Amino acid sequence: MRVISGTARGTRLATLPGDDVTRPTVDRVKEGMFSTVQFLLEGARVLDLFSGSGQLGIEALSRGAAYCVFVETDSGACKVIHKNLQGAQMDADVVQMPAESYLSSCSDRFDLILLDPPYHHGTVQALLPSLDKVLAPGGVIMAETEYGAEMPETCGDLHRKKQYKYGTVALTRYEKDLEQ
């Protein structure tokens, strides 16, 4: 696994052994995700939920995001995120806690939220109301799920704009109107 583009292009990223804790996003899906948000990244505040190895947030930072918060429950994965940030010569906040707890206590607003939660649990759908509260006006959510997962058209001020299919993986893009 590596950083695809930007200042850290080509940097190899460590992962946890096995796939019990993390399931890294494959390059094809990651490239698709970032091609859809490329014009939002410069100076953006990014939230990487269910961070795993941190590859999505690190890719965002490499491509020009100003700030990223990584949220992950597993202590081993948090250590890997720190290692990967160091290897990419980046600085960011790594928070070890459940995504739900972080979102309920968060007072920050983010321009871009990236999430790749465990599949088959309805996690994205359950978190949409909380994500709506921390997404800045004009912001975007990119959620990776299994293809075929039922994703609502709207939730609060969020509107589903597009869904992309990559084999058994779906990327769903939600946007929040600029004016609230």
From TrEMBL:
Its EC number is 2.1.1.171. It comes from the Bacteria. One of its GO terms (molecular function) is 16S rRNA (guanine(966)-N(2))-methyltransferase activity. Keywords: Methyltransferase, Transferase. PROSITE patterns: N6_MTASE. InterPro entries: DNA_methylase_N6_adenine_CS, RNA_MeTrfase_RsmD, SAM-dependent_MTases_sf. This is 16S rRNA (Guanine(966)-N(2))-methyltransferase RsmD. It comes from Candidatus Ruthenibacterium avium. The lineage of its organism: Bacteria, Bacillati, Bacillota, Clostridia, Eubacteriales. The gene is rsmD.
